[in-house]
Amino acid sequence: MLNKQLLIYSLLFFGFILTINAQEKRKIEIKYAGRLNVDEDKYPGARILTRDESQQVHIGHESIELWCDRAIHYGKENFIEAYGNVRMKQADTVNMTSKYIEYSGITQLALARGEVVLTDPNTTVSSDTLYFDRLKQEAFYRSGGTVVKDTSVTITSKIGRHYMQENKFKFVEDVVMVNDSSTIKSNYFDFYSDNGHAYLFGPSTITTPESETYCEKGFYDTEKETGYVLKNARIDYDDRIIEGDSLYLDNARNFASASNNIKVTDTINKSIIKGHYAEVFRGEEKDSVFITKKALAITVQEKDSIYIHADKIMVTGKPEERIIRAYYDARIYKSDLCGKADSIHSNQKTGLTKLINLNKFSSLDKFSTARKPIMWNLENQMTGDTIHLISNPKTEKLDSLLVFENAFIISLDTVSKTGYNQINGKRLKGLFNEQNQLRQVDITQNAQSIFYARNDLQELIGIDKAKSGSISILFDQGAIEEYTRLNQVDGSLSPESQYDERDKILKGFDWREEERLTSVDNLFKGDPPLELPVIKGLEDYVPPKDFFDEDLLERINQAGSRATENIVLSSKTLLGNLLKFNNQFSSKTWTKTNLSIKTYKDSKNTKAYQLISNTEKNAYMFQSNRTFGKKVKFSVWLKGKAEISIIIRDIDEEKTFVGLKTVNITPSWSKYSLFYTKNNENNEIKVVIGGIDKNENVYIKNTELINIPEN
């Protein structure tokens, strides 16, 4: 029994000794100082340490080693101020140099000023002012800073936060990243230094020698030069602009792809391609655009644009030699001309557009065997195995039309509305007038024709049916004005009554008026329904928690030293928000009268609080703060249904000055702000949220108190 008691006593004593050693170990240790002085008037309770000629002052604290020319050591507060050629080292991971450092052994927070440079194995951070939290392994600046990764990447921003254990940075405001291949500018920018991954939020641009990409949400791999961008996404090349709901870019391969609501603009040739999936290659050998899913190519002309639609469209060639290839049920539309074919090829340099029957399907496929390429101009329907449409690229005027093999032209007799004027032959050549109307048509080799002949009173004389070597016809406003047959073999003009119905049509007759395109929307008639994929992409930007969060502020409060307060005050000045626990209303920092606090999460899982009045009228809460400058702004996010008051009370020796704003809150989150000019620049003020009555619904989150700089 005695041995057991002795063992317990020994263990307790040993534990006590370990506790003492641990506490002593947490004390800042002076490892070397050339001289030691005391100045109670200027530095009460502190020792003044100065270097000598041999070496600097050397200070240690756990894994931290610090060297400087001069130091003020507050032993009781476990706090040090270091001046002159300051260098701080944490094991083999972090080195920081500056002109001045404050460091607390209790909070383990360092504040460095003056040409601050912090390095770790992957990056170098430089700023005029930098905070370093050794416990969380985080560094923070708000007055402008620069981050360099392996000398290959440089990032500047107004605000920066370095999460060392994650090799991650969060940058805010005026962010610029520069490397050998690109420059990125953004408002909110997350960067992982180990793999070069960057996440962009807010208006952002990625600029390379070949392109500029814009987005308001995106990802970019700075090492592989790949990424994807969302939200008003756009890529500008020298001669093309790509827009879409989601864009993927591979700048190393000069490649981009796009999904949903795509628009590709050719700025040189004044053409536009639309669809819902596209691939774009850049470069002399692979300069091309491929687009599908409601693919539409538009050649913009001053008076009348040309539209081409197909299952797939490909644009290839140099900027001045673009060729458009549309295939599988291709369609072309212009206000005075339209057509359909298996495939349409258009050369923007030569002005040649080809309507082609691919003949790639089996004989059982009706479209490939019977649905020959077709074109309409005014009242005329033209078909053949292949159709060529020739225009002048400079004047944008139609020049001529060629139909190869099995040429057939049909027009409805405008008077009877039942008969058809018809001409067929092996080959057709048509010429257009200045109004882009078909003026002359010549059909050669084995020409056959049927015309409904009428007199000047438009009375039917008879049906003129003949065969000849060729036929030349003149049109006026789409109607036949006159015709001439060459090398006629036979022919007759007989009354309509002498013809059987089958004799009124030529072999190969195929009237397809129901397929005629009457508008741009008709281009998509008969297309299968299209269901676009949902673009998930990146999550919305989530603002980081305050560097001076509840944990760090609690550490500072526990330190309770005059010197440590300097860190708190300077941090508040830089951070902007002067409120402690600005979104933690259950904290004792918020003094509450007749008020209960209940945690609440809204539909987006955002943490907020419900304010519950325990009295009939005027429950309230407040927080006191000392501010700087004369003008301040107090803001708070509220929702619910109530009339409440937002108050700023300005306390001085004689009387209380009050700024007051009464607001009617609504069921949706809204931000309410109160501006106030103080009586005394350095007074303490109270911010109050009050006038909350029983049974009223009031929800709150994210309060803010900031100084407003004077102009």
TrEMBL record:
InterPro entries listed in its UniProt record? OstA-like_N
Outline the extent of the Organic solvent tolerance-like N-terminal domain. 25-186
Pfam families, alphabetically?
A: OstA_2 (PF13100)
Q: What is this protein called?
A: Organic solvent tolerance-like N-terminal domain-containing protein
Task: Give the organism, scientific name.
Answer: Seonamhaeicola marinus
Phylogenetic classification of the source organism: Bacteria, Pseudomonadati, Bacteroidota, Flavobacteriia, Flavobacteriales
